[in-house]
């Protein structure tokens, strides 16, 4: 593999070894900034630089205290992981849920600086929730000694479909109180920094390829099972938005033609069969008293037969819906997130059965199915990654594609 030949500014010697080394170092730094910790072999593939060049650059950047190395496991083998050291730039991620908000701060090296969580009333209005989030962000900046006005920006996660032509939440969101509101404008005013808004499932998908164990995965589907059900799609290494930005609304895919009426107005949607609110309602009716998601998890892990039956039915329905996606885009991996993640195989096993039953056999056999390791923080981590990736994309040194030499 040959090293990249850079295009240097006017007045410099394009053939000088020092210019080449500086630009190759910058290429490595920008790649790490966009993809978090990578092994030296992964860096070589991502940058198009030779393994020997990567090794020398890593040694140089380590001596400059710009990166750090640590042993990691890659594909079952020991390898040397490389990550950026702390830099001055910091971004925020804010995830609004149906009954909570989470705020995180992180460096471009994708290392978490601060994290906070606060409960909100169910059905909270945007104006009140934004005030709470602004207060949480100010407190996070105070704890870390960061000037809020110097943040790179804030990524914002919202649980509902977003029309990316105007950044408006549309009908069908878990938070109907937020529909039609200029959320971006209100957040910019409240936070005093630039904001980027996206659907929470999209951000969950982005978190998997940024913070999770799927950093080299090019095609991935992330499914969040909560009060609503949504999915985020990574295609060719980037989020897929479609024509309007309204993608991944798998919760409103029809599973049962004669099923219950969904909040979207259709009948038999996946959400009516497999959302946490549906599970809670079914079990509460049988129990004769209110129960929580935590109760569902506790009962399932203790082997309660009624709870396991509800989870099994929901999982098979989810697998059916995922099979349609798998048949359409043939992703490398499908990752399940949301508050039910602690269930592990209790939920994954029926999802796998539904996937195997309805997907093309070869596709089903070669689609990895995992529970997200990022837990409830996935969407907030994806929100901060939205800002960090945009920041890195605007500062990256433009070099000829390594495949075109």
Automatic annotation (TrEMBL):
Residues covered by the HTH marR-type domain: 27-64
CDD domains in alphabetical order: ASKHA_ATPase_ROK_BsXylR-like, HTH_XRE
Family membership: Belongs to the ROK (NagC/XylR) family.
UniProt protein name: ROK family transcriptional regulator
Origin species: Paeniglutamicibacter antarcticus
Native organism taxonomy: Bacteria, Bacillati, Actinomycetota, Actinomycetes, Micrococcales
